[in-house]
């Protein structure tokens, strides 16, 4: 029925209110009042859907219509006044609550109506079905009944009918229902996660149904059955959606609704046979229109493809037993093909508008066939022959997709999606040769085996197609008089005929495949593998002759690109074969690639015939000879070469400390690259600032942000120990407000892009007139707060900065001509510190000719604007990088913008990715550290934190460089970054990335559908601190069998490792999180290529790992377990005969059992460099057992952390190697001090907690350290000759007197929680001290420091800093752990105080 004028007016009123609310709430103007408006938006939308349903069924809304209309008009007038007349947010929220209460008063009435409507509709459907089945027995009666239905249509007819050709009231009702789901899910995300979990799966099914209906209509399919099915489902869903919201606090009703939601979902799924057959018959029916001439139709088909991918994904993660490996592999390829088609239809319409109509029609036909194949897969049990038939049909479908793809790229040629300009073609061919040899070493040729198994089946299948006969449709009856069983038979015959025609169309392709592919592989086992290897060796020789390996600028780009493209295709198919992915498709692809290599080889042969003098003419001569800046040795001080704007810095500090009592907002504004964050960090870490504020927190916002993430960032700075996983957004805001209440706080909001970020957070910052401050950095000049406009450097400052940078990079100095050129270059950099810093990194690698070229380029870009010029300089710097460093710098795009990155983690990832060149003389970790130094030398990477030994602990890049890396990596198909929630993780270009970095909330990652068969790396990160217990079904991992890097450290695996993990045999790097109460299974040994294994688990969980399993991991280099000890004492009987892990470099945290097997176990890691372990007593251990720990044979060991607290008698005799540079002892005995004092290379020492068993004895001895035997020995000889850093924590010392010849090199002393300590030894003043930090040592005599300070001055040291803090809060400090929370590293040599003290220099110093 059509709507009356009054009904149309009411709907206009409702839509106007909803539109206003949707605009108003996301703006954040209402802050704490937005919950009431959100609830009203949901409730009014639900009432709208109900009214549309009633009107469609021919009923009236009665009093409800009048009430909604009257109160809606009143509320709408208030909405209009909110902006114009200054109506307060509280008044608007109050009116929204009142209006909401009126709507709630009708909830029972609406629920009852829905129940009655559903019952009546089901009855109408049954009657309609009976009528169709019995009409041949009552012809006259049927005619009268049909006439009556036209006059008095049934409820089903009323629901599905349209009042005019211009409107479709049923789809209007369906669309309103889907909007209800969106509104409730948005509300649930913020306030009720259980509601969100319950409704989201049903919403997805309804979206699929809507897309199916629209697709069927656009193609002129017979849709009556689909519409009947959809009508019943939609009415049930509307009822459940309404009840789920209005009765969400009624547990009994809520449980009942949960069961009914499952029933409705099952009605939509193709799992039910009746539903599956109906879906297939609709797609198999003849189309009245295949044209896709309009943009709207393209969107309809694209949306249907998206829904097919959703169905396919759901099916894949619950893969049935009857799936063959071939079918699994081809399904993954189908996903790739559908994603490609969806990208064309949805995201590239402008580019593909010019496609001929024939191609568009073939796209639709392929999508239609894909739907048939996908729905056919939804069967519980199926015979092997039927499964193989589906496999063949899927193969034919993949061929059609491939042909469509080829037609599109022929019409619109694009750069290869596998293009890797930073990849050396010779190295890639070498890698392929290695893979081919590995494939040849298999006992059975997988290609031969598969072909042999399938050739007979394909022959019989082709014969069966030829024998099929389809009867002609019956034509003896007129349609009107025809009995229903004959009509059904005729329809079935027509469908069978269409199926047979499609099968016949596939015969030529399958016959060709049988003869040219399958039968050829059967004739000669491994012949094709050997032929491809020979062609690759020949091709490599030709490329080397062409000078490919010398200069990528010189070689013919077309040939090189062709080689790389084919090589990457070959890598995919060969690695697929190695992991067991053999299918019709992969066999054909192997043969296609073999032919392509022959073609490329012939092209290379032609290229070698070109005279040398011609090829030399195209060589690039744009840069002069390069100067190689060393990347070995220690990190230079390039990061400390800086020019500080002291005037701005001091003014800002004064404003923070001496400003008004009320909450004050200060903003640092300026263009990108000017040094806003750099200045904010200096101020934030300055001692005057840190001592003034009770609480400090740093929050990086950037362009894309989520309010929840921002709240979690700030709370994590205040309290790292507390978990906030169960709190919703409103609770988090309240939590932050309460934490800050009564405290003088400084909150830095870095990189603010719009005022909405501030609006989202401002209600969480209490105003209590105690001098609290908000410090913002932004590129917007009109952002909130008192602005400090950061100026550019003047010419003198610009030149000074360039000179400092260049001097720090290259010790040899520069010629006078170069200095003059440098002065000219600096003056044309628009006073931008970032541009100058990057330019210095370029210049340091070039000779004078190169400097002249750079000067010319910079002068040409000087007029385009500072930011644009900076971007050009970044591009120039990138082009001057060697290939291996190009990959390394682009990899920074995988990490969060403005984040500090753990260097060890970064280098391990580089090694796993294959970026680090192999060397027989140097370990890959050392080479990777050299890459870091090289990038720092070029001012592309900034130093974050350092270890006391000088090593870089964390690093970061500027946000402009991060933007550059993300764009360049995507363009070259090197890496794809996905932020937030991207439905189905669909991509524009490239459509199938090799590396994928996802930065999203855990719940969004759980919902993501990662279907990328060629992906090699998957990294997931989240700022959603504390939500790590969320876990998901990891069945999707089998889709990613070629993974080399898998980082799931921010999403929980649950209590067990997923079995799918052990099928990823190519993995080199694996990082996981979980409770993992059942330990690490023996299946780990399947990952024979694994090099880095990182595990985070709960503190109270002990992980066990079979010794035999560990010792089979011959390539393992880094094994770290954080949150638990790893027990590997099992299977000691085989210890002597087991393998030795020569490659193991770092290991934590291992249980070592005192006894005869301990030394044997340690000897299994002869080359280990870093080790953390806990010494425990085995069950067979007695008081008379050996108490000696021998490790002096570990000649490479540099860092050792040893906990002795689980040994009852703590005086263990230690034999440590002289190579040790860093040592941490926990719960130790003083009897071992004389031993460690003789370690000649020890530079860092931490003593943490004395053994409990020594408490009484130690406390007596410590009354006078001169009575200590250890101290007497220390008087007689020199101890700790190279020690630079000493930390004493939680010791029971009272007086520390004797020192003797100890600590001649000591530079930093940290005393923490030594509550009884009263005095320091005076001879400490003889050590070359730079810093003394004291925390929580309340009895320590301050005169000790004065004496030491005087002695230092006598020795000429006037720079000694002494920092004393009586109380340090237990809350988290930004430098207390690794910035990205990755490695369980001790941080004894760095602390918050050492990082925030300044002497005019700080650690991360690129602006």
Nutshell version of this structure?
The chain is of the alpha/beta class. It contains 47 helices and 30 strands.
| Helix/strand/pairing category | alpha/beta
Overall pLDDT metric: 80
Task: Give the terminus-to-terminus CA distance.
Answer: 67 Å
Helix content: 40-55%
Continuous helix count: 47
> Over all CA atoms, what is the radius of gyration?
36 Å
Largest sheet data = 16 strands, parallel
Q: Could you give the order of strands across the largest sheet?
A: 9-10-11-12-13-14-16-18-19-21-23-24-26-28-29-30
Strand content: 5-15%
Poorly predicted tracts of residues: 135-139, 141-152, 415-421, 473-482, 548-555, 612-625, 986-990, 1255-1276, 1367-1407
How does the overall form come out from the CA principal axes?
A: globular
Instruction: Write down how many β-strands occur, each being a DSSP E stretch of 2 or more residues.
Output: 30
């Amino acid at each position: 029925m059509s709507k009356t004028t009054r009904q149309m007016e009411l709907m206009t009123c409702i839509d106007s209110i909803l539109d206003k609310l949707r605009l108003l709430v996301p703006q954040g103007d209402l802050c704490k009042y937005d919950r009431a408006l959100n609830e009203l938006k949901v409730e009014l939308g639900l009432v709208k859907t109900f009214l549309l349903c009633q009107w469609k069924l021919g009923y009236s809304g009665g009093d409800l219509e009048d009430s909604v209309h009257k109160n809606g008009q009143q509320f709408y007038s208030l909405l209009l006044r909110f902006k114009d007349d200054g109506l307060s947010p509280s008044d608007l929220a109050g009116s929204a609550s009142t209006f909401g209460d009126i709507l709630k008063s009708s909830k029972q009435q609406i629920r009852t109506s829905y129940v009655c409507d559903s019952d009546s509709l089901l009855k109408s459907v049954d009657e309609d079905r009976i009528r169709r089945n019995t009409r041949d027995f009552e012809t006259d009666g049927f005619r009268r009944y049909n006439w009556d239905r036209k006059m008095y249509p049934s409820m089903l007819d009323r629901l599905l009918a349209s009042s005019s050709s211009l409107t479709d009231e049923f789809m209007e009702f369906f669309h309103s229902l889907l909007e209800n789901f969106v509104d409730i899910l948005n509300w649930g995300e913020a306030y009720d996660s259980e509601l969100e979990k319950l409704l989201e799966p049903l919403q997805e099914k309804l979206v699929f149904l809507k897309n199916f209906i629209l697709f069927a209509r656009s193609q002129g399919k017979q849709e009556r059955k689909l519409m009947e099915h959809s009508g019943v489902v939609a009415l049930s869903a509307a009822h459940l959606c309404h009840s789920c919201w209005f009765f969400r606090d009624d547990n009994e009703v809520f449980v009942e609704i949960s069961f009914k939601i499952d029933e409705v979902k099952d009605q939509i799924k193709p799992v039910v046979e009746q539903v599956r057959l109906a879906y297939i018959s609709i797609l198999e029916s003849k189309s009245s229109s295949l044209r896709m001439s309009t943009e709207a139709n393209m969107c309809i088909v694209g949306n249907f493809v998206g829904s097919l991918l959703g169905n396919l994904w759901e099916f894949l993660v619950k893969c049935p037993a009857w799936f063959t490996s071939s079918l699994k592999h081809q399904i993954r390829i189908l996903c790739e093909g559908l994603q490609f088609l969806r990208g064309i239809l949805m995201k590239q319409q402008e580019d593909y508008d010019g496609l001929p109509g024939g191609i568009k029609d073939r796209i639709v036909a392929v999508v239609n066939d894909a739907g048939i194949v996908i729905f056919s897969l939804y069967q519980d049990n199926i015979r092997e022959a039927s499964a193989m038939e589906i496999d063949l049909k899927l193969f034919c479908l993949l061929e059609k997709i491939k042909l469509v793809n080829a037609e599109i790229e022929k019409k619109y040629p694009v750069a290869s999606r596998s293009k890797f300009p930073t990849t050396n073609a010779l190295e890639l061919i070498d890698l392929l040769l290695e893979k081919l040899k590995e494939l040849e070493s298999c006992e059975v040729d997988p290609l031969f085996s598969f072909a042999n198994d399938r050739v007979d089946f394909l022959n019989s299948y082709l014969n069966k197609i030829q024998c099929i006969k389809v009867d002609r449709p019956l034509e003896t009856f007129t349609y009107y008089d025809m009995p229903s069983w004959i009509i059904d038979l005729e329809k079935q015959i027509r469908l069978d005929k269409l199926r047979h025609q499609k099968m016949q169309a596939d015969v030529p392709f399958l016959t060709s495949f049988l003869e040219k592919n399958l039968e050829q592989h059967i004739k000669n086992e491994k012949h094709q593998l050997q032929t491809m290897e020979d062609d690759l060796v020949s091709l490599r020789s030709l490329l080397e002759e062409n000078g490919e390996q010398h200069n990528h600028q010189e070689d013919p780009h077309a040939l090189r690109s062709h080689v790389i493209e084919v090589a990457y295709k070959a890598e995919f198919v060969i690695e697929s074969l190695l992991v067991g992915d053999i299918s019709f498709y992969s066999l054909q692809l192997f043969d296609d690639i073999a032919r392509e290599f022959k073609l490329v080889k012939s092209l290379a042969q032609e290229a070698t015939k070109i005279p040398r003098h011609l090829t030399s003419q195209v060589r690039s001569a744009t840069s002069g000879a390069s100067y190689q800046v060393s990347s070995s040795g220690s990190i230079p001080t390039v990061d400390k070469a800086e020019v500080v704007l002291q005037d701005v810095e001091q003014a800002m500090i004064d404003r923070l400390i001496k400003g008004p009592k009320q909450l004050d907002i200060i903003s640092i504004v300026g263009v990108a690259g000017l040094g806003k964050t750099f200045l904010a960090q200096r101020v934030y870490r300055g001692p005057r600032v840190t001592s003034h504020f009770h609480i400090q927190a740093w929050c990086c916002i950037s362009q894309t942000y989520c309010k929840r993430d921002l709240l979690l960032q700030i709370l994590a700075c205040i309290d790292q120990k507390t978990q906030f996983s169960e709190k919703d957004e409103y609770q988090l805001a309240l939590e932050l407000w309460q934490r800050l209440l009564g405290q003088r706080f400084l909150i830095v909001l870095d990189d603010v892009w719009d005022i909405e970020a501030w609006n989202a957070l401002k209600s969480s910052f209490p105003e209590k007139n105690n001098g609290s401050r908000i410090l913002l950095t932004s590129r917007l000049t009109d952002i909130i707060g008192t602005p400090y406009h950061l100026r550019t450097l003047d010419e003198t400052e610009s030149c000074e900065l360039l000179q400092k940078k260049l001097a720090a990079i290259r010790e040899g100095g520069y010629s006078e001509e170069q200095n003059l050129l440098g002065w000219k270059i600096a003056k044309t950099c628009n006073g931008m510190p970032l541009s100058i810093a990057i330019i210095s990194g370029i210049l340091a690698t070039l000779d004078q000719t190169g400097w002249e070229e750079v000067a010319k380029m910079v002068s040409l870009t000087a007029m385009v604007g500072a930011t644009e010029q900076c971007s050009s300089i970044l591009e120039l710097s990138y082009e001057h990088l060697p290939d291996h460093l190009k990959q390394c710098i682009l990899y920074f795009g995988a990490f969060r913008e403005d984040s500090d990155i753990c260097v060890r983690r970064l280098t391990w990832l580089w090694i796993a990715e294959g970026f680090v060149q192999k060397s027989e003389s140097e370990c890959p970790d050392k080479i990777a550290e050299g890459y870091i130094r090289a990038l720092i030398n070029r001012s592309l990477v900034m130093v974050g934190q350092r270890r006391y030994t000088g090593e870089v602990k964390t690093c970061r890049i500027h946000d402009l460089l991060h933007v550059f890396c993300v764009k360049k990596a995507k363009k070259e198909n090197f890496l794809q970054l996905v932020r937030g929630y991207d439905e189905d993780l669909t991509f524009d270009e490239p459509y199938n990335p090799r590396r994928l970095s996802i930065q999203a909330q855990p719940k969004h990652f759980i919902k993501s559908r990662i279907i990328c068969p060629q992906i090699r790396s998957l990294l997931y990160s989240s700022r959603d601190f504390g939500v790590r217990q969320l876990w998901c079904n990891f069945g999707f991992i089998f889709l990613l069998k070629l993974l080399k890097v898998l980082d799931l450290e921010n999403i929980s695996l649950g209590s067990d490792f997923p079995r799918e993990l052990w099928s990823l045999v190519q993995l080199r790097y694996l990082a996981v999180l979980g409770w993992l109460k059942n330990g690490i299974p023996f299946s780990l040994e399947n990952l024979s290529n694994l090099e880095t294994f990182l595990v985070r688990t709960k503190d109270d969980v002990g992980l066990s790992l079979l010794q035999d399993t560990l010792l089979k991991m011959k390539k393992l280099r880094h094994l770290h377990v954080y949150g638990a000890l790893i027990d590997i004492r099992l299977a000691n009987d085989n210890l002597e005969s087991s393998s030795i892990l020569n490659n193991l470099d770092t290991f934590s945290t291992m249980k070592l059992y005192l006894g005869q097997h301990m030394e044997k176990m340690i000897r299994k890691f002869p080359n280990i460099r870093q080790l953390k372990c806990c010494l425990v007593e085995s069950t067979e251990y007695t008081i008379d057992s050996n108490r000696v720990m021998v490790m002096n044979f570990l000649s490479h060991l540099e860092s050792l952390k040893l906990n002795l607290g689980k040994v009852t008698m703590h005086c263990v005799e230690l034999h440590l190697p002289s190579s040790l540079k860093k040592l941490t002892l926990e719960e130790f005995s003083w009897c071992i001090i004389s031993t460690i004092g003789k370690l000649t290379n020890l530079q860092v020492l931490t003593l943490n907690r004395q053994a409990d068993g020594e408490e009484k004895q130690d406390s007596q001895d410590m009354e006078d350290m001169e009575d200590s035997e250890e101290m007497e020995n220390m008087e007689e000889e020199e101890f700790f000759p190279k020690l630079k850093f000493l930390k004493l924590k939680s010791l029971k010392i009272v007086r520390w007197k004797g020192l003797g010849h100890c600590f001649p090199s000591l530079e930093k002393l940290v005393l923490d929680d030594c509550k009884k300590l009263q005095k320091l030894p005076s001879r400490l003043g003889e050590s070359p001290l730079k810093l003394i930090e004291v925390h929580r040592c309340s009895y320590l005599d301050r005169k000790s420091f004065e004496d030491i300070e005087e002695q230092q001055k006598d020795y000429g040291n006037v720079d000694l800093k002494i920092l004393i803090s009586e109380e340090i809060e237990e809350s988290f400090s930004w430098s207390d752990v690794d910035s990205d929370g990755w490695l369980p590293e001790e941080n004894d040599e760095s602390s918050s105080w050492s990082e925030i003290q300044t002497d005019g220099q700080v650690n991360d110093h690129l602006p």
